[in-house]
Write a structure and sequence with these properties.
four-stranded antiparallel sheet; alpha/beta; binds adenosine-5'-diphosphate; transport; 226 residues; six-stranded mixed sheet; ABC transporter domain-containing protein
Amino acid sequence: MAKIELKHLYKDYEDGKHAVTDFNLTIDHEEFIVLVGPSGCGKSTTLRMIAGLEDITSGEIVIDDCVENHLHPKDRNIAMVFQNYALYPHMSVYDNLAFGLKMKKISKGEIDAKVKEAAKILDIYPLLERKPKELSGGQRQRVALGRAIVREAKVFLMDEPLSNLDAKLRFQTRAEISKLHKRLKATTIYVTHDQTEAMTMATRIVVMKDGLIQQVGTPREIYLKP
Ligand code: ADP
Ligand code: ADP
């Protein structure tokens, strides 16, 4: 859990594109924020700035009172899940899960325990020896979630994690992500263009358009107000 303060974030790309303009939001510890809006409105850029994968043109990212602007992505207490899974194809599921921990100088036994615990939580324990190509889409996305879990990050960032799944798996995985959020209590920022996901998962929804925040509110406030 973390308190996240996003203060006047701007992102201008080198070609002059204003991708994000004055993004201001304070996110409380147990929130599940869903960023919605049309393609190109700046959702991914916002997420990538928070993860440290994209330089900020101006503004400040504060997590638990610590200014993170210039921290390397791996020094941020953040885990990111992408839509295309981003698994290492030549490594087993086990090694995919363990990879992020091996750089952290913790013992083999401790890594083993964390990997197996995450695998149990996500019901992928029997798949630990497989390679990503031997998994279904839903299983791959679980491994991607598992990589986020083993990091024990305080903040989860998810960029359209369900968009490559079929309708049934989307439904199942959506419920699982909500359950995980309740269990791990990691503050979550989730990008989607799917209204159902926003309605069912969010504590608050942020609606973006042309790089600007248009509206912030609970699902009820955003979608059900007359
Ligand atoms: P979304 O995630 O909402 O679809 P993005 O954050 O990916 O939107 O993109 C916001 C805007 O910034 C878009 O107009 C996109 O074309 C532009 N953009 C994204 N990445 C780059 C880049 N590397 N260079 C220039 N423009 C970019
Ligand atoms: P889905 O239809 O759910 O996307 P697949 O048809 O790809 O899944 O696979 C069905 C089942 O077979 C899954 O449980 C998957 O783990 C398993 N499977 C797929 N490919 C392989 C493989 N190369 N080796 C072993 N098991 C596999």
